[in-house]
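Write out the bound-state structure for Fe4 H S5.
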Amino acid sequence: MKCRTCGQKAVVNMRQHKLALCKEHYLEWIPEQTDRFINKYRMFNKEEKILVAVSGGKDSLSLWDILVRLGYKADGLYIGLGIDEGIAYSSESHRLTQKFAEEHQLTLHVVDMEKEYGHSIPVMAELSHRGKGRPCAVCGLTKRHAMNRIARDLGYDVLATGHNLDDEAATLFGNTLVWSTEFLVRQSPLLPESKGLARKVKPLCRFYEKEMTAYSLLRGIEYIYEECPFSVGSTSIYYKQLLNELENERPGAKLNFYLKFLEARKQGLFALAVVEPAGLNICPTCNQPTSAPGECSFCRMVHKAKADEK
Ligand code: Q46
Ligand code: ZN
Ligand code: ZN
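---
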């Protein structure tokens, strides 16, 4: 297999794109494509301040790396979840993120759950009785809250996350199985800023997970190989397996599933589902927008955890 650009030996062969590339040209192709997606979906421009949510995994570190290589103003945000589970998951992912930031002389903000709110994610989940043994609901709520707070307080224009095509296709598949129109209408590479919530973008949403793995390995990015221990056995991992079986038989099926959805969405397939939240309210504790009057669900959770502690 030869590189399409230079004819040297290819190291990556992408059946779904009928494209093989050598190391040098693959490491050029990924940022070029990313920039194309950023412009196509009008995510942000070179003047805007971008906050990248970095977890220490391959996708978010690669995203940070790509944005900086492309000349965008991108700082990082690491959220210390306090997940150990015998593999020191959080401390190891924090160490690798810190290392990446230092080596590239980048600015990294850190929010430590335990220091700022008194409890790690697993403890918070237990104390607030949410999530039935899995802290993911609490974790998701916390991450959204912290990202939005830092973006607002430090004046970032946009929040970028490292979701890849496999993540997006699995979410889409899950939402389609139950025809969850309210989620389908909001699933997009770009969510514009609205009522105090920062603009959110997913510049890697059209790359297969294996393309991101290849990028991070060829770029020599050191990332945490382990997935979060709480992701084991999750529905999204099951959906990813199903979609991979489909992809093996029909290369390109996953990308088609996602892109055709974006097209249908753009043409207004889910437009009727757009229900504006009835007059967004402001949480009196953290000043972030919330759908119901009174404290937001994050602040209620923190209070409940504090009350139950006593
Ligand atoms: S939600 Fe759940 Fe993830 Fe949080 S607790 Fe781990 S698996 S990190 S994307
Ligand atoms: Zn080449
Ligand atoms: Zn609040």
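---
Residues 44-309 form a domain with the Rossmann fold fold (CATH 3.40.50.620).
Residues 89 and 228 are 7 Å apart (CA to CA).
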